[in-house]
Amino acid sequence: MADQNVSYTIGTVARITGLSTHVLRKWEARYGLIEPVRSTTGRRRYSPDDLTKLRSLATLVHRGHAISELASLSAHDLMVMVEMNPVVESAKHVRVSVSGAGLAAMIAAERTVFPSSYDFLVVSGHPEMSGETDVLVIECASLSDELHNRLMRLSQVVVVYNFSSSRILQQFEDSGMTCLKAPITAARLLPYLPSKATSDLPIRPNAALPPPPLPRFSDASIAAIANASTTIECECPLHIAQLLTSISAFERYSAECETQQPDDRELHGFLRQIAGRARAQFEVALARVAVAEGYVLNELDGSTEPGGSV
User: Fold this and answer.
1) Which of 149, 86, 94 is nearest to 117 (CA)?
2) DSSP code at position 214
3) Cβ pair 156, 15 in contact under 8 A
4) Residues 96 and 171 in one domain
5) How far are the Cα atoms of 125, 143, 170 from residue 49, in angstroms, in the given order?
6) Which pLDDT tens digit goes with each residue over 167-204?
């Protein structure tokens, strides 16, 4: 029986189930599937039973069942459905990168605890750059801002640590990383490893999106185009500049929400990336208009005159 004194953050549950934090909150609000307890700071804390139910739901939804049809079922009924409606699983193994001599020794000694579908690869140096992997398990003496910044963009991370301040630990958990206090055993680690290869999990919003290109033009340059006289017999330059201004503002707003609202970090990161790509496309359109109007567009330069620099 699971230890009900253990609890999980919403970021950890998202990592384990493959469901986004946005989906978890929507299911809670719309269907009342799970009612996680709240910490003294108001953050959701999920019990092992909550996690088991959500893993069953994620599996069934991934198999094509509608969440509305599953909402009224008990955790036991969901588990029965999972067991009675098996699917042919992918032959792909789960790739686990392991960083740390202590972790590597523990896994080697207790290898039989892990399913044979797990492939362990010991990495060193900068493990966040170790290439294709489904989850990185890293051992460190203490948690730090520097380590957080290196690891936060990885899709799934388990950090085994000895010491940490409460602020740094909260920062890691808010970013969706699983943090386990050392020492740990294979049985303690196993529930935090994905049960399937990444390609077999439900797609998370920003899992595979590379960062958008940096802005090309300053706000002043865009405003100058919007306010300049035009020889084109339409207001397309003005509309493009206005759209670019709005999209750029929304991109910055999403970035602020990403840092200020930890519970929605993944959703706002996705929105920021999409806005950045849209902004880059409209920057191409703005450059095309500048050529048509006879402007010389200098990137990130704030002055413009017709026939001169923008």
Assistant:
1) 94
2) P
3) yes
4) yes
5) 37, 28, 23
6) 898 888 877 788 999 888 888 888 888 776 654 444 44
CA gap 152, 171 in Å, rounded: 10
3-class DSSP state of 163 = strand
Here the CATH number for the domain that contains residue 96 is: 3.40.50.2300
User: pLDDT digits over 262-295, tens only?
Assistant: 556 667 777 888 888 888 888 888 888 777 777 6
Local structure of 277: helix, strand or coil: helix
What 3-state DSSP class applies to 213? coil
State the average pLDDT for the chain.
78
> Do 99 and 42 lie in a common domain?
no
Domain contains 130: yes
Query: Is residue 134 scored above 50 in pLDDT?
Result: yes
The answer to whether 180 and 159 are in contact (CB under 8 A) is yes
Q: Average pLDDT in the 32-59 region?
A: 87
Residue 12 falls inside a structural domain: yes
pLDDT higher than threshold 60 for residue 304: no
Asked if 98 and 75 sit in the same domain, the reply is no
Asked if residue 223 is part of any domain, the answer here is yes
Residue type, 76: H
The pLDDT-based confidence of 142 (bands split at 50, 70, 90) is very high
In a domain? residue 246: yes
Q: Contact, 212 vs 280, CB < 8 A?
A: yes
Q: Which domain holds residue 115?
A: 90-190
pLDDT at res. 140 = 92
Q: In DSSP terms, which residues pair with 124 in a beta bridge?
A: none
Same domain, 27 and 101: no
Residue 134 contacts residue 198 (beta carbons within 8 Å)? yes
Question: Nearest-CA neighbor of 153 among 247, 250, 58, 258?
Answer: 258
CATH number at residue 6: 1.10.1660.10
Going by C-alpha positions, the residue among 27, 111, 102, 119 that lies closest to residue 70 is 27
31 and 56 part of one domain: yes
Q: Are residues 10 and 80 in the same domain?
A: yes
